[in-house]
Amino acid sequence: MPQLDKFTYFTQFFWSCLFLITFYITICNDGDGVLGISRILKLRNQLVSHRENKIRSNDPNSLEDILRKGFSTGVSYMYSSLFKV
Length: 85
Prior knowledge:
The structure is a single chain. By secondary structure, the protein is mainly alpha-helical. It has two domains: 1-30; 32-85, no CATH class. The chain contains three helices and no strands. The chain has helices at 9-29, 34-58, 60-84. Helix 2 packs across helix 3. The radius of gyration is 29 Å and the shape is elongated.
C-alpha cells in the first residue's frame, strides 16, 4: 500500500504541512473569511443589544403589553379549538 510505504513519509508530510500552512494563512489574512465572520457576528450582536436597549428605554411597558396580548390570544385560540371538538 502506498500510504504505508516508508519512502513516501517525507513527501506526504511535506505536502500536508504545505497545504495546512497555506490554508491557515489564507484564513487568517482574509478579512471576510472565518475570522471576518466572527467579527461581523460580534458587531451584529452589539447592534442588536443597542437597539434592544433603545426600545426598552423608550417604553418599558410596551413589551409587557405585547406579551399579555400574545398570551391572551393564544389562550383564547386554545379554548376556541377545544370547544369546537
